Amino acid sequence: MTMAWLALTLKKLGTIGKIPRNLAGDNSVREAVKNFTEYVQAKSVAAKKQNDQVYHVHVPELETLEPIAGKYVFVVANSETNFSLFLSFI
Description:
Layout: H1 2-16, H2 28-55, E1 72-78, E2 83-89
Antiparallel strand pairs: 1-2
């Protein structure tokens, strides 16, 4: 099931790629999305590899997943000394 949620996250992150340039003059939002996408892709590859080698669990189609109740929260913090990305469901 984790692999399906990771795949759905990657699909949703693809839609975030169309952020207006004026949202972040230094492209911090774009960089955060890029870094988070790379992180999720790495987790997805690792989960697929582990499933293929150990568990052999059927991965459900994205369309069959139950929706997560609530809203998405996407926060990017940028300062001279700290940069962070937070994505959560509420």
